[in-house]
Amino acid sequence: MARNVEFDERAAVSKAMEVFWKKGYNGASMRELTEAMGINSSSLYNTIGDKHQLFVRCIKNYTETRMDDAKKQIYKTTSPIKAIVNFINASVNAIISGHDSCLAIKTTFEVATDNADVQAVLKADSDFTHYLLSEMINEAIALGEIPGGNDPEMLADFMVSAFTGWHEAFILHRNPARIKRMAKFLIEKVTT
Question: Would you give the DSSP letter of residue 79?
Fold first, then answer.
């Protein structure tokens, strides 16, 4: 009689996410994933599904965690411009101190172009960041912290694109000072 293997699914997904983060979707083998998760392949298939379903679950977990962290960070600051500056600085810190770049950005280029499930998760993450920044920019304009002639949607688009570019620049050059200079420039442009 087969026995049911019990495991902490959330912790197992987190372990699988680390493998995907390091090796990418195509580079991660089922054996590496199940070993990291501490389960056998039949337990994986019976609880989560195949590699693709596990990957979607990992990306969703990653982006939801980022969204929760961003909301906590943004909403604990009373000044919208300070919240925006803190968000920019937190992004810089994540880029320069992250162990393996941004999982969402890595996934965008490796998998999302051909995979509707993954693309939907990453689009929701990007839309959330855009909405959050637009909301803060609108509030900052209303309070006079950002000049009123700015287009909040365009400014949010520009900021989201800047974050992606900074990730690429750091992957290629590994120069924290360069990323910090670009962030300082962005902050100056947003606030003037």
Answer: S
Total H helices, total E strands in the chain: 9, 0
Other beta carbons within 10 angstroms of residue 161's beta carbon come to 10
Q: Which two tokens stand for residue 98?
A: 């992250």
Tell me the whole-structure pTM to 2 decimals.
Answer: 0.88
Q: What does each C-alpha distance from 179 to 2, 87, 122, 130, 185 come to in angstroms?
A: 54, 14, 23, 20, 10
Q: Token match 């996934």: residue?
A: 107
Helix (H/G/I), strand (E/B), else coil: 151: coil
- In order along its 192 residues, the chain shows pLDDT tens digits of 344 445 688 999 999 999 999 999 999 999 999 999 999 999 899 999 999 999 999 999 999 999 999 999 888 888 999 999 999 999 999 999 976 778 898 898 899 889 999 999 999 999 999 999 999 999 999 999 999 888 999 999 999 999 999 999 999 999 999 999 999 999 999 888
Q: Which residues contact 21 (CB under 8 A, 6 or more apart)?
A: 100, 103, 106
